[in-house]
Amino acid sequence: MSAALIAFIVAIGAGGFGSLVGIGGGLIIVPVLSIALGYDVKTAIAASLIGVIATSLSASPRYIKSGIADRRLGLVLLVAAALGGLAGGLTAGLLDSRLLALLFALLLGAVAIQMLQQIRRPSTPPPLDEEDAASGFASSYVEPTTGAEVVYRARRIGPGAAVSFAAGNISGLLGVGGGVINVPTMNVLMHVPIRVATTTSTYMLAATAAASATVYLVSGQVDPLLAAPVALGVIFGARAGARLSMRVSQNTLRLAFVAVAVIFAVGMFGKFLAL
Amino acid sequence: MSTLPPARVTAPRRYTSATITIGVVVSAACFLMAGLAEVAGMETGSGDMTDLVAVLDGLLAMNPWAWASLGTFAVVLTPAIGLLVTAYEYATVSDRRTVLLAIAVVAILVLSAVVAVLR
Q1: Are A209 and A49 in contact (CB under 8 A)?
Q2: Nearest CA to CA, how far is A266 from chain B (Å)?
Q3: Hey, which of A8, A100, A124, A210 would disulfide with A229, CB 3.0 to 4.6 Å?
Q4: pLDDT tens for residues A208-264?
Q5: Helix (H, G, I), strand (E, B), or coil: what is residue A153?
Q6: In chain B, what residues touch A48 (CB-CB under 8 Å)?
C-alpha cells in the first residue's frame, strides 16, 4: 500500500475524531506520518497543519448553520490566542519548557478529573438573569439529542482570554495544538456546555492552524503531494464526524475528550522526563 | 434552566457557511485532480510552492504537484476569507464589537505570519 493511501486512510479517522471532540487531529496524523511512514517531523507537522485546517473547514459549516458553534466567543478567544502566539516569539527564551511540560501535564490531568466528575454528577447551569442576557455572552442552542433549547452564558471571559493568550504563547514551545486547551477552557473554566465548547473549538482551529501553516508554506516545508491525501482524508472524515457529533450525548463527548486529555497529559509528562 | 433569550440579534450564518463550503469543495476538487493526474501517469512535477508561475505552468501541464499546491493554497486561504465574511455578517446586525474582533483576528494572523517569515 502506498504512503499516500495510508495517509489518506489515517486522515479519515483523524478528521472524524478531531471534529467530534474539537481537536485538529494532529495527535494522530503527525506520529503516523513521521514514525510509521518515515517522513521528516517538520514535513509531517506541515501536512498535519493543512489537515487540521481542512478538519475545521469541513465540520464548521454544519456547526455554524446549526447555531451550536459560538462564533462571538470563539473570536474573543482567537484574538487572545493569536496575540499570545505573536508574543510567543518574544518570550520563548524566558520560559523553561521542561517546567511548562510538567505544569501542562498536571493541568490536563486535573481537567480530566474535573470532566469525569461532571459525568458522574452533572451540574445544572445557574439560571440567567437580565444582567447575563445583556452581557453579550449569553446564547442558546438546540441540543440535537433531546431537541431542548439550552440557554447558557460564557462566564469568566477575562480569565478565559488570559488562558487562551498563555496557550497561544506556549503552544509553539510545547508543540500542542489549540483544541486540547480551547475545549477545557470553555467547558471547565467558562461554564460553556461541552457541545458548544467542542464545536466552537473546531471552528477556531482553522484560523490558528492557518497562521502556522503559512509559515511552513513560505519556508518551503509543505509537501503538497503529502498534504493532498491528508487533507482529502480529513475532509471526508470530518464531515462524518460532524454528523456523528450531533447524535452522541454530551457525556460521550466529555468522555472522548477525557481520553484525549489523558493522552496529552502522558505525552507532556514524557516530554518533562525526556527534556 | 432559564429560557431567557440572548439579548443580541443573531447574525446571519449562511454566508460564512457557504464561503467555507466553497473553499472545501474547491480544495477537494484540486486534490482529486492531483490524484487523477497521478493515476493517469502524468509527470509529477516539483518546485517551490510560492513560485506561482511554476504552479500555473504545472496546472496547465496537469502535474499532480501543481494541482495539490493549488488545493493547499485554497485550504490555507479559506479561513481568512471566512473570517472576513463573518465580519460582514455581524456588520449586517450592527454588532460592531464582533466585526472588530473578526477583523482583528485576520490582522493578527497576517501580522504573525509576516513576522515569522521575516525572522
Answers
A1: yes
A2: 30
A3: A8
A4: 888 888 888 888 889 999 999 999 999 999 999 999 988 888 888 888 888 888 988
A5: strand
A6: none
Domain that holds residue A232: 3-274
Overall domain count for chain B: 1
CA A229 to chain CA mean position, Å: 22
Pick the residue of B36, B105, B114, B119 with the most A CBs within 10 A to test the interface with A by mutation: B105
Closest among B30, B68, B77, B29 to B49, alpha carbons compared: B68
Cell output for A261: 486529555
Residue B56 lies in a domain: yes
Domain span at residue B25 reads: 14-118
The answer to whether the Cβ–Cβ distance between B24 and A64 falls below 8 Å is: no
Answer yes or no: is the ipTM higher than 0.95. no
